[in-house]
Design brief:
The structure holds two protein chains of two kinds. By secondary structure, chain A is mainly beta. Chain A has no helices and eleven strands. The model of chain A has no long low-confidence stretch (mean pLDDT 91). Classes of the chains: A mainly beta, B mainly beta. Chains A and B meet through strand 4, strand 5 and strand 10 of A and strand 5, strand 6 and strand 11 of B.
Chain lengths: 117, 115
């Protein structure tokens, strides 16, 4: 149980294009999902908290107009990197909390590697 | 703000050796503490957690005790196996501290177990 998937697992795009990453909770409902970014040999940094049916909460320094988050259902959150540039190349990881348990534990997706040329 | 500091790797041990990975934290509230493990090519998996002082989390032979007095949550295992080779992340959740609702992670420790 508590499986989170991400799609795609990796993507290469040209500078200036937009890329959408999906995060799904496969066997539980998640009112709250999180998006993290991980640089090589660095820690995971929280980018934003995605709440079903409401606007996402972004961390300081994260551009909300560049990283669009939509959480339209209890099992799906999407992150769209708009007008991507090479500096946006990174490993993006989502996580979700199982609202049925009420616990703080977050379950993580396998990540999406983005390379912007 | 909150932060997590863990020993940097890689840490290389022989099979059946004793393992300790140090983790210390700073937090404004009363955090819950976690260890996550990332096996090659896979996503992060929760290894164990502790939600209050003196709690001990344990799983798969790994243990960690929430020490408020030393703000630490060191990961230990008595006898490691080759299959334990992975990257281990210490993390905290501090929603009552007024900060983010997500997790604050350490940089991760790459553990390599040699047969």
């Amino acid at each position: 149980g508590a499986v989170v998937s991400q799609h795609p697992s990796w993507v290469i795009c040209k500078s200036g294009t937009s890329v959408k990453i999906e995060c799904r909770s496969l066997d539980f409902q998640a009112t709250t999902m999180f998006w993290y970014r991980q640089f090589p040999k660095q820690s995971l940094m929280l980018m934003a908290t995605s709440n079903e049916g409401s606007k996402a909460t972004y961390e300081q320094g994260v551009e909300k107009d560049k990283f669009l988050i939509n959480h339209a259902s209890l099992t799906l959150s999407t992150l769209t990197v708009t007008s991507a540039h090479p500096e946006d190349s990174s490993f993006y990881i989502c996580s979700a909390r199982d609202q049925g348990t009420g616990e703080e534990t977050q379950y993580f997706g396998p990540g999406t590697r983005l390379l912007v040329l | 703000g909150d932060s997590v500091t863990q020993m940097e790797g890689p840490v290389t041990l022989s099979e059946e050796a004793f393992l300790t990975i140090n983790c210390t934290y700073t937090a404004t509230g009363y955090p819950s503490l976690f260890w996550y493990v990332q096996y090659p090519g896979e996503g992060l998996q929760l290894l164990l957690k502790a939600t209050k002082a003196d709690d001990k989390g344990s799983n798969k032979g790994f243990e960690a005790t929430y020490r408020k007095e030393t703000t630490s949550f060191h990961l230990e295992k008595g006898s490691v196996q080759v299959s334990d080779s992975a990257v281990y992340f210490c993390a905290l959740s501090d929603p009552g501290g007024g900060g983010a609702d997500g997790l604050t992670f350490g940089k991760g420790t790459h553990l390599i177990i040699q047969p």
